[in-house]
Design goal:
- The protein contains 17 helices and 12 strands.
- By secondary structure, it is an alpha/beta fold.
- The protein folds into 2 domains: 202 residues, 3-Layer(aba) Sandwich (Rossmann fold), CATH 3.40.50.10490; 170 residues, Glucose-6-phosphate isomerase like protein, domain 1 (Rossmann fold, 3-Layer(aba) Sandwich).
- The chain binds 5-phosphoarabinonic acid.
- The site of 5-phosphoarabinonic acid (PA5) has 15 residues, from loops.
Length: 447
């Protein structure tokens, strides 16, 4: 495995803009990151935080591989239903290592929206006799996934009659929720999501491993990469430790010299999907209200190199100094494309040139290069960011593992959809909407 982390343009010694970290800043932040890592490790030891265990579940990964191989013999398509942490990791890995063309397995589609104009045609385009539907929800109470599942079950029944159940797999909590009840009552195949692993930290659990394995991605290699990262993290000295160094630096830019925006600029196929996964991890884990009433968070933004150099870099260069940057690229750019020579050199020069321009403007920039476009590197990289996010959150004095804001949105949606126990909430919300001061302007229509 070969991953290069370069944080030199976070250091004031190199940046010389007043926006870099001094040697003292770094010392203090590294100590903070070490303490925070211990605190996450303590919660892990108490069984409250489970993502550090996932790289070691090799036996489970092998079982998933075997199940997936059996499915590949009978079916051609897999349709994944889920949203947020139940979907983004699968998309990131699949696209990251080469999209559908790299998969030697089922044709995988991840449906993470309920826009009927997208969802229904997509569902109808699936050959339901040859499709396995995988519905993923930790809680089993997410309105979007529940609605998708109801429609997919109807389609499976219409196409397959009584054998519809053979074409459905549920990935959910081992004990609780409507999906678990459905699996137990209807005898539907299922995989458990460890109760102490939340959605956005779950890509290396059956949430990501099962659909990815069905698509031909190796779950064992994903875990191997993550395990290599986990082991390096546990053994290396703070200054040699990419997890601790990154956690120290990003926590500096979250709370000490706060940069409200964190931009990932990606160079290379599939990395924008990885950035999408990271956006959720960063936003939902760190955007929090502290117990003392202070608000914490950093807006994660994505930019695609080189395309967005021509739309966003002007802002990054001359606009407010309110951002920290992470540049990510493949070292080798995946499968060699015949005749790529000059274009590749240009692409590499764009990467260096854009970093150089931001450096000239005194902006803090990290660069990360991933050796190969494969499972081992992606597994390590995702696990790296899970640790960094957990430690940065801990440093900021918030709980990186909860998501009260998302839960609130789910509650209101369920109430608006007429769920009985939420009738009072619905009434209150409707009264509030009706009572708001009007400022609506409509042109055309009936208004
Ligand atoms: O990270 C999270 O916890 C969330 O984004 C969830 O993954 C998302 O809300 C879906 O929840 P569930 O898996 O319970 O359907």
């Amino acid at each position: 495995m070969d991953i290069r982390f370069d944080f030199s343009l976070f250091l004031e010694k190199n940046l010389r803009s007043g926006d870099g970290m001094t040697a003292r800043d770094l010392r203090i932040r590294l100590r903070g990151a070490e303490k925070a890592a211990l605190s996450v490790a303590r919660r892990h030891a108490e069984g409250k935080v489970g993502f550090p265990d996932l790289p070691f579940l090799a036996k489970e990964a092998r079982a998933i591989s075997r199940d997936a191989a059996r499915l590949r013999k009978r079916f051609t398509h897999m349709l994944v239903l889920g949203i947020g942490g139940s979907a983004l990791g699968t998309k990131a890995v699949l696209e990251g290592i080469g999209g559908r063309s790299a998969g030697k397995g089922l044709l995988l589609t991840v449906a993470d929206n309920v826009d009927p104009e997208a969802f229904l045609p997509m569902l109808r385009s699936h050959p339901m006799k040859k499709t396995v539907v995988v519905a993923i929800s930790k809680s089993g109470g997410t309105p979007e996934t529940n609605a998708q599942l109801a429609l997919a079950v109807d389609a499976l029944k219409r196409a397959n009659g009584r054998s519809w159940k053979e074409r459905l797999v549920l990935v959910t909590d081992p004990k609780n929720g409507a999906f678990r009840r459905m699996a137990d009552e209807e005898g539907i195949a299922s995989y458990p999501i460890p109760p102490n692993v939340g959605g956005r930290f779950s890509v290396l659990s059956p949430v990501g491993l099962f659909p990815l394995a069905a698509a031909g991605v190796s779950p064992e290699k994903l875990l191997l990469g993550a395990k290599t990262m986990e082991t390096a993290f546990r053994r290396k000295e703070p200054r040699e430790n990419p997890v601790l160094f990154a956690s120290a630096a990003y926590s500096h830019y979250l709370t000490v010299n706060p940069k409200p925006v964190h931009v990932w600029m990606t160079y290379g196929q599939g990395l924008d999907r990885v950035a999408e996964w990271w956006q959720q991890l960063w936003a939902e884990s760190l955007g929090k209200l502290r117990p003392d009433g202070r608000r914490v968070g950093q807006t994660p933004a994505r930019a695609v190199g080189v395309t967005d150099q021509h739309s966003q870099v002007q802002l990054y260069q001359d606009g407010p100094a309110d951002k920290v940057y992470t540049f990510v690229k493949w070292m080798k750019g995946g499968a060699s494309v015949p005749g790529a020579g000059r274009l590749r050199s240009l692409f590499e020069a764009e990467f260096e040139g854009t970093i150089g321009a931001l450096w000239n403007a005194g902006r803090p920039v990290a660069r990360i290069e991933l050796g190969e476009r494969d499972e081992v590197h992606i597994g390590a990289f995702l696990h790296f960011w899970e640790w960094v996010t957990a430690i940065v959150g801990e440093c900021a004095g918030i709980d990186p593992f909860d998501q009260p804001g998302v839960e609130e949105g789910k509650k209101i949606t369920r109430a608006l959809m007429g769920e009985k126990p939420a009738a009072r909430l619905r009434e209150r919300f409707m009264r509030k909407m009706e009572g708001r001061a009007p400022a609506e302007i409509r042109i055309g229509g009936d208004g």
